[in-house]
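task queued by scheduler; priority normal; single chain, no ligands, no partner chains; default sampling; output format set to structure tokens
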Amino acid sequence: MSFAALGLPEPITRGVRAVGYASPTPIQREAIPLVLSGRDLLGAAQTGTGKTAAFALPLLQRLAQGPASGRIKALVVTPTRELAAQVHEDIRIYGAHLALRSCVIFGGVGMQPQVDTLRRGVDIVVATPGRLLDHARQKTVQLGAVEILVLDEADRMLDMGFIPDVRRILALLPARRQNLLFSATFPDEVRKLAASFMRDPATVEVAPRNTPAELVAQVVHPVAKDGKRELLAQLVRSGDWRQVLVFCRTKRGANRLAQQLLRERIEADAIHGNKSQNARTRALRRFKDGELRVLVATDIAARGLDIEELPHVVNYELPHVPEDYVHRIGRTGRAGMSGEAVSLVCAEERPLLAAIEKLIGRRIEQRPSGGFAAPQASRGPEAPCRPAPAPRHHPTPSHGPHHAQRARPVARSQRPAARVPALLGGRKA
């Protein structure tokens, strides 16, 4: 099936072809006709299944069919800055051949450029909840003409405590509008929110709930807690990994790990909520361009990152919420590409691993970790992690065969294509 067969006109299909998409994904095949018909929609899809295009393409067509007014006709609300920027960039590319204007507004940057853009008139706004409400309080954004509302990654908005803000935003919108809600999972609070404002929504679900992407190979390395950093460095070097997204639980832990990897002569940087937006964008750009081998992230900062052909995700620390494991490994194995998710699990994390395996309904393959593994025989599942001795022949950062390997530059032709999101724009959608 082609995108044209779904009822999308040539200007939009031309924008889709520009990003290399030849045929729609399952979520797009099912959702696009429903959105074009004007139905409210609940969309359940894993990360990386193409859900942004599933709402953006029909949204663009519906707006293009109406008269230009310079008023906001569509509002997309996302939980994080990175996701907002990426969604806006996708909308801009898909609608490059339409006479529509869009902008993105989020916190962490000055409000005045956003105010100036809004005053010039836009058709589509992509926003995070807090900054959108800031504009509403200052009366710099007018939402009285919104015809289409999209809540993207509603489960993450719940996790981040944004549901009260979302309810305040709903109160600012016209009663008659089309509502689209997308979520990887549907906890009770998200279902309750949907029931409060959606009218007889159609439901599209393209994968079982909480099922990791099929193309992701999952592996567990049992390891002593104090051996994790050395094991990670060894895996990166020995596997010649060139693009690795590593998850830590805390901002401080992410900073510390990135600094330790740099001392190991492995190019790394951290991305989390305490970093300025410019620093986060710069780190993400360097990672996509192949200048960084390792990007260390917290769950919130990594939500919505769209990195093409990302081959490796590492759980340096397992998440306390099993569903977050599914979100994490969904960063790889996207758009038909295979990927690997590696978890470094110490003894005290075994209950977390058991909860993840129960959620996904399968045991994850365990591989030996050599000299980094924690002794197993005399330890119960709740015992604390103890440091394991480093391998005797582990090379130092300044010499040895791995140093030469680390120093080899990555040819630009071998690097994945960079898609750096536009951070602010009043450009054509």
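post-processing summary
- The chain has two domains: 4-205, 216-394.
- The mean pLDDT is 82.
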